[in-house]
Amino acid sequence: MSLIENIIRSDIRALAAYHVPDASGFVKLDAMENPYILPDALRVELAQHLANVAMNRYPVPSYATLKAKICATLGVPAGFDVVLGNGSDELIAMLSVACAKPGAKVLAPLPGFVMYAMSAKFAGLEFVGVPLNQDFTLDKVAMLSAIAQHTPAITYLAYPNNPTGNLFDADDMVDIIRAVGDRGIVIVDEAYQPFAQASFMPRLAEFDNLVVMRTVSKLGLAGIRLGYMAASAALLVEFDKVRPPYNVNVLTQAAAEFVLDHVDVLDAQASQLRAERTKLYAAMSALQDLDVFPSAANFVLIRVRENHNGGKTADEVFSRLLEQKVLTKNVGKMHPLLENCLRITVSTPQENALFLDALTKSLAS
Ligand SMILES: Cc1ncc(COP(=O)(O)O)c(C=O)c1O
């Protein structure tokens, strides 16, 4: 056996690394980023703020000031606190590690965010995926039956869901949270909450097993890598034990504290993107040969109808968009329910117009 075979787990060797395509020179509509930056005056102020950060020191691992600011500005209910992560990706990893009892399972609807299954696998947990209905609503009967069969330690519900963009029915979610009961936790992943304006955060006190997870990534700060999760104190104490003590670096901490003092700027950007989403949805719906799915997120899922008269397949449309320097996400192979689907990030009016023009050309025979 080679060194690699001797030391690396066979399931890890069998995996491909998470691939992020080089987007330089492209209109980048593949990663649900906020296209807007901070106004110039704020950026100058931020630079001064960051210049005063003690980079020679470790962060203070309680992150008390940042956590208090997140709770105060981002709608965490009184009496609840948060645990911070290097992006919500790290929070998902922490949850997996904390709950990885032998034989423990993770459950989520599919198609869903890929890191739920990946993180489960890394931590040695079995992942159970439950297909959504054709219209991407929750198959509540199948979910409840899978919960009864597998007793998952962790159930993820992304609200809105990625990559479909829809909000699941809140009453169905409550039934799932209740069915899981005290044998598991339910993570309501609200990564796209700024664009949905619907949340389980105010309902934390209703459910002992509810964790509401969010990120500042989609709000306009993807580069600083900061996620947070709110839950009962009893749960947070345990999750915090598997958190690397200095997981949020001092520059992220300082930048987040500064920007949260100006959260109205980010809120205005989110509101602008919601308006752009409505326009983009309408414009794409007017195109022939496309199904456009309703979205409560900052992206829209579309399906290129198959075998339309002389038209292109989704793969061809994706490639033709690439040729025109527009990068979208081809999700068609991710799950059978996503066949012929592309996911498009909502961007500025200029980039959306460029995309629509390129899309129209790509669909033409
Ligand atoms: C549903 C969902 N949750 C979490 C994340 C990860 O976000 P972060 O940038 O905080 O790691 C994403 C990223 O795309 C996502 O789609």
Report on the architecture of this protein.
- There is one protein chain.
- With 365 residues, the protein is α/β, with parallel strands linked by helices.
- Helix content is 41%, strand content 16%.
- The protein has 15 helices and 13 strands.
- The chain has helices spanning 3-7, 10-13, 40-51, 64-73, 88-98, 114-122, 140-150, 170-180, 193-196, 217-221, 233-241, 250-260, 263-285, 314-323, 349-363, and strands at 27-28, 81-85, 105-110, 126-131, 154-158, 185-189, 210-215, 227-231, 290-292, 299-304, 326-327, 329-330, 341-345.
- It has a seven-stranded mixed β-sheet with strand order 2-8-7-6-5-3-4. Strands 9-10-13-12 form a four-stranded antiparallel β-sheet, covered by helices on one side.
- Helix 4 packs parallel to helix 12 (250-260), helix 5 packs across helix 6 (114-122) and helix 14 (314-323) packs across helix 15 (349-363).
- The longest helix has 23 residues, at 263-285.
- The site of pyridoxal-5'-phosphate has 13 residues, from helix 5.
Describe the sheet with the most strands.
Answer: 7 strands, mixed
Main structural class: alpha/beta
Shape: globular
Oligomer: single chain
Give the low-confidence spans: none
In spatial order, strands of the major sheet run: 2-8-7-6-5-3-4
The helix-strand sequence is HHEHHEHEHEHEHEHEHEHHHEEHEEEH
Portion of residues within helices: 40-55%
> What is the number of E strands?
13
Number of helices: 15
What is the alpha-carbon Rg in Å?
A: 21 Å
Distinct bound molecules: pyridoxal-5'-phosphate
What's the pLDDT, averaged over the residues?
96
Distance between the termini: 53 Å
Q: How large is the share of residues in beta strands?
A: 15-25%
